[in-house]
Amino acid sequence: MNDKVKDIIERDNDILKILVKDLFDKLKESLLTSCTKQIEILEARLFEKEIENDTLKKDVKNLKSQVNIQSEENAKLKAELANQENNRRRSENVSNQYSRSNNIILSAIEHSTTEIDPNGTPLFESA
User: Which stretches are annotated as coiled coil (predicted)?
Assistant: First the structure.
């Protein structure tokens, strides 16, 4: 039996070589096709991720510019608020100074105050 197998192998050695070569070529082609498909899928995913990344970069840039605009506006509003507070204090000070000038009491001069009711009649006099 071994001799018969040996004869078949030796006799068909060239045929076996061709069969093995064809088998390996088909296997190589199958692996190459499979790898090529996998690479194409990965490249497509990578391209999608790059597009998504670019979109997110644009969104971040837009949001940063909006934050900068809001920060500038906040700074302007704070400056305006401080300016209005200064103006209010100045106006309050002027108002206080003006009201004090109407209430001057001179010493060595008799001073009388008369309270008047809403009808215009004096209520009482004090010296």
Answer: 39-94
Angle between helical axes of 13-101 and 2-11 (0-180°, round to 10): 70
Rounded to whole angstroms, how far apart are CA atoms 95 and 101? Answer: 10
- pLDDT tens for each residue of 41-67: 999 999 999 999 999 999 999 999 999
Tell me which residue of 55, 77, 79 sits closest to 63, measured CA to CA: 55
pLDDT > 90 in the chain, percent: 52
Q: How confident is the model at residue 40 (pLDDT cuts 50, 70, 90)?
A: very high
Backbone angles phi, psi at 36, to 5 degrees: -65, -45
This prediction has a pTM of: 0.48
pLDDT tens profile 109-120: 665 666 667 776
Rounded alpha-carbon distances, angstroms, from residue 9 to 16, 23, 41, 74, 85: 8, 17, 44, 91, 107
Give dist(CA 77, CA 57) in Å, integer: 30
Q: How far apart are CA 110 and CA 41, in angstroms?
A: 106
